[in-house]
Specification:
The structure holds 2 protein chains of 2 kinds. Chain A is mainly β. Chain A is built from 1 helix and 30 strands. Chain A is globular. Chain B has one domain (about 10-420): 3-Layer(aba) Sandwich (Alkaline Phosphatase, subunit A). The chains are: A mainly beta, B alpha/beta. The interface of A and B includes residues 36, 58, 59 and 113 of A.
Chain lengths: ~350, ~425
């Protein structure tokens, strides 16, 4: 169950520079946010501690994780409850109750110089474990397969690349004709979806490396004849946990690409049938849908930036959003934790806001 | 966002054969040279090519990158053919041409508006009440002449449209106004109608001449002479219409420039310059990236880079580069600050222009901006300094005067002087 109207701002972390992307680690304890200063900032939702991951020399938008969660979201919430009870009883801050030690996990991040970096995600002093020159030009997205054995990356060389967990190349999936903006593994671990600038979604068979079909999300692309340039691409992409739906998000109905005059849109596919529907905000809004998630309760959630920042919720078969939340600045990414209990929005102001879902 | 008036597709500007040929004819040049003479002309006649990156290219994504700073954006720098000079990674082919190029990194063009900025950059002067200064195209056509009967001032527009624009020649007169080729195409009616045979056309021309001669016997004047000359010049342009046809180039050359509009337009520019046109402006659209500046500069500079580098190679191989001044400019630069939409806005206080070819000291880099590119810290120059430099580069004394209505008007703004450091 989910009541979007009960969604509440839980906390806000701030960084000095505008943010680009955000992701929760598999346990949901840590929130990672990449920034325009080439760093990734890690925020500990238990302690509020902030740690910087420095090593990239360009912006990062692709982030994914290796390592199964050893601490579930429920355990984290239980720790927080114990800490609160202790504080109430003793009058001392929660620091009196040591935070549980985080289980090891690996962060893989991709930057706009084409590099992938492996990091010890839980480390107090994180240093790069491994750097792989993965793409010519930008890495736009990174994903990890459900079994944790395969990493997918995509970028401006029009390629989707598969890697072993320790960074050895497996295969390059060729077939896109423009920059590949996003990539996501199907929950069954057998298929991979990727989407390019011009709106084509490819459905790759991971065993053969062949794309068996193209799904049409061309509504998320336009060649602007006035400015003579293309705008498009899936800025956000997510499967539902049961694998029945795929959401891709971006900008549509563009009348002026260079001023960002267009409307945010989520294209929601029935993965098996390939049919799609367009999820639009209820209110008129100018901008790009920079992130999308599908909640286990059946809601699609999108976050946008342009003429301000917004989050929208679509329930079930709704094609017009039924709930809107204002954000204090442009959203540049949206993340949902694995348990579906929290959302995070990375903002152009440098803040990342965490929302509790009820 | 300020209104963009750097492109106008208004119907009244649609080109006509008469207007085009008339503009071509009015130059009063001596007609076609022989092939040998044309080759010699190629070597000796100075010409100017402006590559105008419409909308305002970002200096940080091109000539003056600031990587790993708060304004730098995501791109890295790359080495060039000049030791110690780095430019943005989006220009890998151009980087190999840097030994032929000079960079002016300390430009303050003083106005971040599209229309006014373009005027400032093309006239070398800030707008003044009471006088409109001619654009560099008209000035070049006037002071350099045109050797083969083609118009002296031609601009190649990225979109359709085209026509004849006398406004940029101001007091120099309409004969130096710009002839525009929309999307690089000659006027649709330049060619003689298929139904009009060559004998019929000659017969028609004979009748016109007889009538003209009879009229001139009683009322001959400078005006009638110019009228007569216009037809003769128009005929010469008509006979040389192949110049406008880039399909006459071999496939290998066309491939080098790139099989897209901008590549074709630069190739056309080279053909026009080779044919003796004094000034060609090629506009590449668009760089007005208030939104998604970085994605759009990947796309636009990805299209610009290789054809431009090929052009410099081609001009050099043909022995034309030493006589052809090449300038890469916009109407403004873009803000160092990255806005909330990953865009950069208008910025005129500190940006860059690149030059190559005639009279230019290859490898020179003049002027500096601070670490974040927000201000000029060394050798600040205005568009007037650049205009002086353009003239000096093609052997023209910019302190000389034009005399509209017998009033002396210096070719370039007398408050400035050439940037000697970039001149060979």
């Amino acid at each position: 169950m989910l009541d979007p109207t009960a969604t509440k701002l839980e906390r806000e972390f701030k960084h000095a520079r505008p943010l680009i992307g955000c992701r929760f680690d598999p346990s949901g304890r840590f929130l990672f946010a990449s920034a325009e200063d080439d760093t990734i900032q890690r925020f500990d939702l238990l302690t509020g501690a902030k740690a910087a991951f420095t090593g990239h020399t360009s912006w990062v938008r692709g982030m994914a994780f290796l390592g199964s969660p050893s601490t579930g979201s429920g355990e984290l919430d239980a720790w927080a409850n114990r800490a609160q009870a202790l504080e109430a009883a003793t009058g001392f801050a929660a620091a009196t109750l040591p935070a549980p030690k985080a289980a090891p996990f690996t962060l893989i991040s991709g930057d706009y110089h084409g590099n992938l970096i492996w990091w010890p995600g839980e480390s107090d002093s994180p240093k790069p474990i491994r750097t792989v020159v993965a793409h010519t030009g930008w890495v736009r997205a990174v994903a990890v397969s459900p079994d944790g054995k395969t990493i997918a990356s995509c970028g401006n060389d029009n390629a989707v690349k598969l890697w072993t967990a320790d960074g050895k190349p497996i295969r390059t999936l060729e077939g896109h004709a423009s920059h590949v903006y996003n990539v996501a593994f199907h929950p069954d671990g057998q298929r991979l979806a990727s989407q390019e600038l011009k709106g084509i979604v490819k459905d790759w068979d991971l065993k053969t490396g062949i794309s068996s079909r193209d799904l049409d999300a061309k509504v998320l692309h336009k060649y602007d004849p006035t400015f003579m340039a293309d705008i498009g691409g899936a800025r956000g992409m997510a499967f539902s946990a049961d694998g029945t739906r795929l959401a891709v998000a971006g900008i549509s109905n563009v009348s002026n690409a260079f001023a960002g005059v267009g409307n945010p849109l989520v294209v929601l596919f029935d993965w098996k049938a390939g049919a799609s529907k367009q999820l639009k905000p209820k209110e008129g809004f100018q901008g790009t849908m920079w992130g999308v998630a599908i909640h286990p309760a059946g809601y699609a959630i999108g976050a946008s930036g342009g003429s301000g920042g917004r989050m929208w919720f679509w329930k079930g078969d709704e094609v017009v959003s039924s709930h809107t939340m204002n954000l204090p600045a442009n959203a540049r990414d949206l993340a949902m934790n694995a348990a579906g209990t929290r959302l995070a929005a990375a903002l152009s102001s440098g803040a990342v806001q965490v929302y509790a879902l009820k | 966002m300020p209104t963009c008036d750097y492109f106008c597709g208004a119907a009244e500007h649609a080109v006509s054969r008469r207007g085009f040929l008339g503009a071509a004819a009015a130059l009063g040049v001596s007609g076609f040279a022989s092939a040998a003479a044309a080759r010699e002309l190629t070597k000796q006649q100075k010409r100017v090519l402006v590559v105008f990156l419409s909308g305002g290219m970002s200096q940080l994504e091109s000539w003056d990158p600031k990587p790993n700073t708060e304004t730098g954006g995501p791109f890295k720098t790359i080495a060039t053919s000049v030791t110690g000079t780095h430019i943005c990674e989006l220009l890998p082919h151009t980087a190999k041409q840097m030994h032929r190029m000079a960079l002016v990194r300390g430009l303050n063009s003083q106005n971040p508006d599209h229309g006014i900025g373009e005027k400032i950059m093309l006239t070398g002067r800030k707008p003044e009440a009471g006088i409109e200064y001619p654009h560099i195209g008209a000035v070049s056509a006037k002071v350099l002449g045109s050797g083969t009967g083609l118009p002296g001032n031609i601009q190649i527009l990225p979109n359709g449209g085209g026509g004849f624009d006398k406004s940029d020649s101001t007091f120099l007169g309409p004969k130096f106004g710009a002839v525009s080729l929309g999307n690089g195409k000659p006027p649709a009616d330049l060619a003689r109608p298929a139904a009009l045979t060559d004998p019929a056309d000659r017969q028609r021309e004979e009748i016109r001449k007889k009538l003209n001669d009879r009229f001139a016997k009683s009322r001959k004047s400078a005006a009638t002479d110019a009228y007569t000359e216009s037809f003769e010049q128009a005929e010469r342009v008509f006979r040389q219409s192949d110049v406008f046809d880039v399909t006459k180039e071999d496939a290998k050359t066309a491939d080098r420039y790139g099989r897209h509009d901008f590549g074709r337009h630069l190739l056309l520019a080279r053909r026009l310059l080779e044919a003796g046109v004094s000034y060609v402006k090629v506009s590449h659209s668009n760089y007005d990236t208030h939104h998604e500046n970085f994605d759009f500069h990947i796309e636009q500079l990805g299209e610009f880079d290789r054809p431009f580098a090929t052009l410099l190679d081609d001009l050099a191989e043909r022995g034309m580069l030493e006589s052809t001044l090449v300038v890469v400019m916009s109407e403004m630069g873009r803000t160092p600050k990255i806005n909330q939409n990953y865009g950069r806005d208008h910025w005129s206080a500190a940006w860059s222009v690149a030059l190559a070819g005639a009279g230019i000291k290859g490898g020179a880099v003049v002027g500096k901006t601070n670490a974040t590119g927000t201000t000029v810290t060394d050798r600040e120059v205005y568009s007037a300094h650049l205009f002086h430099s353009y003239m000096r580069a093609v052997g023209v004394d910019p302190t000389k005067n034009f005399y509209p209505n017998d009033r002396p008007v210096p070719i370039a703004d007398p408050k400035a002087a050439a940037i000697d450091e970039i001149l060979a």
